[in-house]
Amino acid sequence: MPTARFITFAAAAIALAAVPTIAQMPGTADASRVTAGTYKVDNNHTQVVWTVNHLGITPLTGAFGSSGGTLVLDPAKPATAKVEVTFNIAEMSTTSAAFTKHLSSADFFDVAKFPTASFTSTSVQVSGETARITGNLTIKGVTKPVTLDAKFFGAGTNPMSKKANLGFTAKASIKRSDFGLGYAVPAIADEIDLMIHAAFTA
């Protein structure tokens, strides 16, 4: 091999060796990793993102996290699963401080009186790695039934806590008018779309 080509080859090999190996994610969408037990909500990694149609001109989006809850799950009997989650409405976030303040007022969520919301499941219908979770959603002291279309996302051992973790995503729609949230339509659409990212830890 000519000297120039050898030097080029050697330099390339050294460069490749210096590239760090990308570690495999601790969690994966493998339901066999899920073990039976009672899991606590991981408040640091649970989110509810809401979207509402504003004036028919733009969608508006915000988010809030959880402040507690549990998931009781047995993979051998998934339909017996039970979930309870409390959401921290008082720490809601949007991209505008003024908008967040308005949403926190008595016009909308009235967080001074109702700092949290909650969901408690009443039934679970499972199909493979998806489920329809029906339960009671309470906002501003008003409780209404709601159904979540949920999907298993992943499970694994958290490398920092060394504990088993699992997560799900879910979608649902609710009506503002059911909970006394804000102005009447058509200024803001009555329907609110929810996207939920729920994490649980052993």
Task: Provide an overview of this structure.
The structure is a single chain. The protein is mainly beta. The protein has one domain: Beta Barrel (Lipocalin), CATH 2.40.128. It contains three helices and ten strands; from the N terminus they run H-E-E-E-E-E-H-E-E-E-E-H-E. Strands 1, 2, 3, 4, 5, 6, 7, 8, 9 and 10 form a ten-stranded antiparallel sheet that branches. A hairpin with a 2-residue loop joins strand 7 and strand 8. The N and C termini lie far apart (58 Å).
CATH class: Mainly Beta
Name the overall outline: globular
Number of DSSP-assigned strands = 10
Q: How does the helix and strand content classify structurally?
A: mainly beta
Distance between the termini: 58 Å
- Rg from Cα: 23 Å
List SSEs in N-to-C order. HEEEEEHEEEEHE
Quick description:
The protein is mainly beta and 202 residues long. The chain contains three helices and ten strands; from the N terminus they run αβββββαββββαβ.
SSE blueprint and pairings:
Blueprint: H1 3-18, E1 27-28, E2 37-41, E3 47-54, E4 58-73, E5 82-88, H2 97-104, E6 116-127, E7 130-139, E8 142-157, E9 164-175, H3 176-179, E10 188-201
Antiparallel strand pairs: 1-8, 2-4, 2-10, 3-4, 3-10, 4-5, 5-6, 6-7, 7-8, 8-9, 9-10
Task: Give short descriptive properties of this protein.
202 residues, mainly beta, Lipocalin, 10-stranded antiparallel β-sheet, 50% strand
